[in-house]
Amino acid sequence: MIQQSELILNSDGTIFHLHLKPENLADQVILVGDQARVKTVADFFDTIDFSAQNREFHTVTGRYNNQRFSVISTGIGTDNIDIVLNELDALVNIDLEKREIKKEKRSLKIVRIGTSGALQEDIPVNAYVVSQKSIGFDGMLKFYAHSEPFCDLPFEKAFKQFTGWKDTLPDAYVVDASKRLADRFNGAEFRKGVTISAPGFYGPQGRVLRLPLAMPQLNKLIEQFRFEDWKITNFEMESSAIYGLSKMLGHQALTICLIIANRFTGQANENYRPEMKKLIKMVLDCLTK
Ligand SMILES: O=P(O)(O)O[C@H]1O[C@H](CO)[C@@H](O)[C@H]1O
Ligand SMILES: O=c1cc[nH]c(=O)[nH]1
């Protein structure tokens, strides 16, 4: 039996942060960082049967092309992903009344649609990157036991050696996306990539405003790094934790990002929302075709 302090339920029976009951959640989940993006996704739904909001976590559940989806905003960062992934898994794999783990497990399909900064000169603003792997600079997964079998340890080792990774930084880890989900995004408009999830937008992504960096050459080394046929393509702030916790809990996960900045050409598109709308429609169509 899981204690109330470990799995907090609200007085109406909803789970603590997401304010959802099991029946409010679809098996296909779209995660977005920005609360406002939930409406952009839900506006494509043919019908809507549920919506709830608590803090930055806004959920809408409905149907698109005859399939049920929940779209949920996570806010920014892997600390929020720890909350969202654990509560999503509890909703499907823990009996909330008995407070017991269910024998039969359900697997969610989780697709994050985000914004991102490109780390290679040839990935322009407005491109779409499908993250085949994610590198976590955040350290969140390392609080859980037995993450190693779910990580790409040779990639991790090569990356840390090449960059001279400082041991004062969180221990970087690498996790693959769901291949089954990634295979749905094979069109020429989708570039395959390796995505770093950083625990910050400025220093952890190599941006200097007033404070100098602990590893000033890191972005240059990231751009140059190669492992087998892989090169690192982009920065965002959630995928590593989504991939890591999904793999460990038995869910499928994938991130697809709209590039809104290129860190080497110095360009950015702050008016990216019309492009985001196009990407969302393409993702929903690829998931339901
Ligand atoms: O646009 P979203 O989905 O929030 O994604 C990116 O944008 C935020 C930073 O501006 C971070 O959450 C990053 O991952
Ligand atoms: O450069 C960028 C752009 C969007 N999101 C990020 O995390 N980084």
Helix content: 25-40%
What is the subunit arrangement here?
Answer: single chain
Shape: globular
CATH fold type: Rossmann fold
GO biological process, one term: purine nucleoside catabolic process
Protein name: Uridine phosphorylase
InterPro entries: Nucleoside_phosphorylase_d, Nucleoside_phosphorylase_sf
Domain Nucleoside phosphorylase: 29-269
Explain the overall architecture:
The chain has 289 residues and is an alpha/beta fold. The protein contains 7 helices and 14 strands. It has a single domain (22-288), classed as Rossmann fold. Helix content is 25%, strand content 29%. A 5-stranded mixed β-barrel has the order 7-12-10-8-13. It has a two-stranded antiparallel ribbon with strand order 5-6. β11 (226-227) and β12 (230-236) form a beta hairpin. The model has no long low-confidence stretch (mean pLDDT 98). Bound molecules: 1-O-phosphono-alpha-D-ribofuranose and uracil. The site of 1-O-phosphono-alpha-D-ribofuranose has 10 residues, from β7. It holds the Pfam family PNP_UDP_1. Its EC number is 2.4.2.3.
Give the tags.
binds 1-O-phosphono-alpha-D-ribofuranose; 289 residues; two-stranded antiparallel sheet; five-stranded mixed barrel; 7 helices; alpha/beta; Rossmann fold; 14 strands; binds uracil; globular; single chain
